[in-house]
Amino acid sequence: MSTQKLFSNRPMAWTAVVGLAVFLAAIPAIAQSGNGDYILLIASGFLCDSGDSSACPAMVKSADDASYEISGVGSFDAKSKLITATGTFTHKSPNGNSLETGIWMANELVSFESYGVAPDALMREGRALGPPQSGSKRLPMFSGSMPTGGLAVLRIRLIPVLGFAKNATLQVNCALGKVPDEHPSEGIRLAFEGGALEFDEEVNGRTLFLLTRPGASTAAKAANPELDTKPAPTEVEQ
């Protein structure tokens, strides 16, 4: 990679990091604003307060044992498909070496299938998913929200600190409520555009959808999405 390319990518990466910090601080306000039906948590917030090291970040592997570790938060409307979501990622080689790290941002909510609310979810299997203790910097449980299982499919853009951005489809599954047989495992899957290697082996990591508006439908379903084959520009030759 040329020096010119390297430095041309740094402003985008650091701008994204600053944007992530601002978004994390604003999540409680977003939850109460009514702009979305759901809050999305991917290995973040109070999900990480249990002391279980496998809870965060969420990890997914490919057939050759390379992996992605992902955390994130967001808010979306299942009916209008409007979404605001972002987070961090780390790409590791099969032997565990870090290959790249950066942030991701959601471009589109492709679909959301709700498995229904699960009022007892916060006590299931002894999970410590309640409000954080005094002094915790993690996201609190939102007043009036209901834990909900479901499957969300997002189109995202991954922006590494160094290197070129990539487009991918992120699948987030929360196995609460009436979980279908074909999606029994909680976790994430990642498929890159252009026929690149798929990461479809959920390893660990907790995910959760929080229904923030009691009147919102919890049965929003959509047809199985097809990946957008239209290539997105990710590299600019200097």
Report the C-alpha radius of gyration, rounded: 18 Å
C-alpha termini separation: 10 Å
Mean pLDDT: 76
Strand tally: 10
Percentage of β-strand residues: 35-45%
Structural category? mainly beta
Approximate shape: globular
The major sheet is characterized as: 10 strands, antiparallel
Helices and strands, in order, run as: HEEEEEEEEEE
Helix content: 10-25%
Tell me the number of structural domains. Answer: 1
Q: What's the helix count? A: 1
Low-confidence stretches: 1-9, 30-34, 123-140, 216-238
Describe the structure.
Helices cover 13% and strands 39% of the residues. With 238 residues, it is mostly beta strands. The protein has one domain. Strands 1, 2, 3, 4, 5, 6, 7, 8, 9 and 10 form a 10-stranded antiparallel sheet that branches. β6 and β7 form a beta hairpin. The model is unreliable at 1-9, 30-34, 123-140 and 216-238 (pLDDT under 50).
In short:
With 238 residues, this protein is mainly beta.
Give the tags.
238 residues, mainly beta, ten-stranded antiparallel sheet, 1 helix, 39% strand, disordered C terminus
Task: Give the topology.
Blueprint: H1 3-33, E1 38-42, E2 58-62, E3 67-76, E4 83-92, E5 98-117, E6 146-160, E7 166-174, E8 187-192, E9 198-204, E10 207-211
Antiparallel strand pairs: 1-3, 1-10, 2-3, 2-9, 3-4, 4-5, 5-6, 6-7, 6-10, 7-8, 8-9
